[in-house]
Amino acid sequence: MSKSTNFSGQPIFSQLLNFIDKSEVKKIGKQSGGERYIKKFSTYNHLIVLLFIAFEGYSSIRETILGLLANAHKLSHLGINYLVKRSTLSEANQRRASSIFGQIYMSVYRQHAASLTDSRLSDSDLKRLYIMDSSTVSLFKDILKGVGRNPKEGRKKGGIKAHTIIKASENVPCLVRYSEAARHDRMFLEEAFYLSPGSIITFDKGYVDYAKYEEFTQREIYYVTRLKENALYKARQEYDIPDETDDGVLKDEEIILAYGNNKKKEHRARRIAYWDSKNERLFEFVTNNFEISAEKIALIYKKRWQIELLFKQLKQNFPLKYFLGDNANVIESQIWVAMLANLIITLLRSKVKRKWAFSNLVSIIRQQLMNYINVYKFLEDPEKSWLAVIKEKDKKYENTLFPQF
Questions:
Q1: How far apart are CA 162 and CA 137, in angstroms?
Q2: How far apart are CA 286 and CA 273, in angstroms?
Q3: pLDDT digits over 255-301, tens only?
Q4: Who contacts 347 (Cβ-Cβ below 8 Å, separation ≥6)?
Q5: What are the phi and psi torsion angles at 40 (to 5°)?
Q6: Quick check: helix, strand or coil at residue 289?
Q7: Cβ burial, residue 186 (10 Å; 0-12/13-18/19+)
Q8: pTM of the entire predicted model
Q9: Hey, which residues does 159 pair with through a beta bridge?
Q10: Nearest residue to 188 via CA among 104, 114, 132
Q11: What single DSSP character describes residue 373?
Q12: DSSP state of 397
């Protein structure tokens, strides 16, 4: 059994950590002040503990320490040479800046970005497509200002909002900004200005800002979004709809959107009316791209649902309901590390030929995290390790007159 290639000299957790460059983590920690006044609990050790929490689904510091104690003899494989105390972990969560974990996430993302690209996405327009949206995490305390009115009875809960941009071809965040939940989405529209000319970004109608739309045009960045029901515009020119176009395209026209003081400034845009026969619903899309076909504009906006599925995946597999502290820094740190855990599982999934549902993969990792199993061979053929044990036992007794079972 020990000779089987399905078993490893390293726990699964240790194998997952190979996606992270330890020297880069140390460099980030040192340059960002994460090692200042620290004796033992380094940035790398802190990262490992927070990842341990994310993978195991722990909800408190006490639970975390007990989990580490249960695996104390295996911690050396993870690069941890001592067991952190509850007070030390609690203090580190408050003092070590969450931006450090954000830099670590981006470092791992940039290092492995090539492995994330979906080769099936052959369309050149979709390859340069980015998706922007936000997701709110409700907090039990009013640490950050939540959304909605103050309740008549009881206290209002706080909330933190993660404003996220993903590449459609990668399906993991390539830019994340945090704010209190009450802050409007359109305040973060300018975060997309870093995109290279020719890029396409799609977002929902919560990001309405005609001045920013005009700046997109000036920067040669294309946007695709929906027109609000109460939007005022002037129709300028209606385009002919080719015969081969999808029957759902009802209208394709050039419009002018007014903005600024006294509505004196104008933004030239394109409005597309599209009837979704499947859901029996009318959509009005607006874009500054006049070259892409109307039906492809509808397809680009449909791809926006991809980021909604990503948020659902994060919240289902790495529940962010309970945090290790009651300040914004520790909350942001845990969200960054949950995103890093999601990225690591995504990278693992991309390297395994056998198709796995993401939630099933997370469940297996969670159950076997500290076991000495070759994670790649196991995921390629989970039954093979058991069959190898049976074969070895049969071979042991093949020349025996009275085999023992």
A1: 8
A2: 9
A3: 999 998 888 899 999 999 999 988 899 999 999 999 999 999 999 99
A4: 19, 112, 115, 116
A5: -120, -45
A6: coil
A7: middle
A8: 0.84
A9: 138
A10: 132
A11: B
A12: T
Q: In degrees to the nearest 10, what's the CA dihedral of 317, 105, 332, 49?
A: 70
Instruction: Please answer whether residues 331 and 160 qualify as being in contact, where contact means their C-beta atoms are separated by less than 8 angstroms.
Output: yes
Structure tokens at 363: 């469940």
User: Which residues make Cβ contacts (< 8 Å) with residue 56, sequence separation at least 6?
Assistant: 67, 366, 369
Give the tens place of pLDDT for each residue, 353-396. 899 999 999 999 999 999 998 999 889 888 776 676 566 666 65
339 Cβ neighbours under 8 A, 6+ residues apart: 105, 172, 173, 176, 314
Map out the domains of the chain as residue ranges.
12-99+326-389, 204-303
* Helix 43-56 vs helix 86-95: crossing angle, to nearest 10: 100
Query: Which one-letter amino acid corresponds to residue 242?
Result: P
- The DSSP symbol for 7 reads B
| Contact criterion met (CB below 8 Å) for 300 and 121 | no
Measure Cα distances from 326 to 143, 155, 252, 334, 363 in Å: 7, 16, 51, 12, 28
Residue 256 near residue 217 (C-beta atoms within 8 A): no
